[in-house]
Amino acid sequence: MKVLVVNAGSSSLKCQLIESDGKMSLMKCLAERVGNEDASMSVSFFPDFEKVKYNVAGLTVAGCLKKLLDIMTDDPESPISGLGQIEAVGNRIVAGGEYFTRATLIDEKAREDLAKCEELAPLHNPAADECIDTLREMLPTTPQVAVFDTAFHQTMPPKAYMYPLPMRYYDEYKIRRYGAHGTSHRYAAQQAANLLGRPVRDLGLITCHLGNGGSIAAVNHGKSVDTTMGFTPLEGLMMGTRSGSIDPAIITYIMRREGISFDEMDAILNRESGIRGVSGTSGDMRDVLDAAAEGDERANLAIEMYVYRIQKAIGSYYAAMTRTDAVVMTAGIGENSAELRERIFAGLAHMGMILDKDRNDFTGALGANRIISIDDSPIRICVVTTDEEMRIARETDALVGRM
Ligand code: AMP
Question: How confident is the model at residue 79 (pLDDT cuts 50, 70, 90)?
Fold first, then answer.
């Protein structure tokens, strides 16, 4: 099935056309800095994926999607000649609130519920909804599916998802933990079960999605029972540019001291903090590792804090579950940085998570899922490669195939 996967952000659009049966990508598109003067969109097609850049200044995210559909029908390199050849659309949705517990076919009722979720992710959800509406106009008979970052975590018990605030904030505004990266945590848990040769329902797993954004989940018997991201993706681990968890009183203190607005504070916490804020170099882990290797002390501090916070989160989920069979590492940093994996697990051996140095360093065939702990490590450590668009395509295929 040819599935168009649409991943709309506040100022970006990532799309792929995926042949879900062969798990093959046929088209890749990335629009960045959408809404700015220098907004651009690159599109490339199978088999060479040679990127062609387009100017998309003045377009919205949904406008970029419209332009992409035009390119896909006009370009002789395109694997399709008409929009009718797109058999399904899979939309990544950041926040599904309490309305959505699984991937859902978008009918009238689902579209209404999606509108109600917009305020939960005001940067992301409205752009995704606009894309859905654009596609409904342009591909009126093609089934569309919404795949949610939050859905996998809807199995958390109230003691994990409630905040110790006056109850009315939950009753009136649904302020609670929703988590994120759900598609990735679900996939990582399933892949780890395959590596361990046991059904996921028999396992206790701690899944670590460590990319630009980062979150850890406790996955008991295949179900998320807790996760570090919260009401928004700002809570939890230290991230590329996000602070993660800090004393909430710091926020009101800084706002009073500097007389800054809510939006300014929001930007400090989301875009100027985390690895970027501490290192002063960059929010990109590779840059910071390079700077630390050259003796940059702030870069080194940022890495030490990053590692320490991950160690504490893994330890807390070890405590939260009745058994832990494996810790699973995925996403940009989790998959690719043997150095950071080594530093993280150096502090966790006493809990029975013992890394094998050679297995950790061996990269082998790129993208290979593998176990990197020693043979008799009481808790296994796994590396799993993630491909969000591919997983969205497969979930879409499964749902539409059942129709
Ligand atoms: P993601 O959001 O999953 O694409 O992950 C992006 C993050 O992964 C960035 O901070 C990258 O610097 C980091 N990353 C990718 N490859 C490596 C690597 N080989 N070593 C360290 N960090 C990496």
Answer: very high
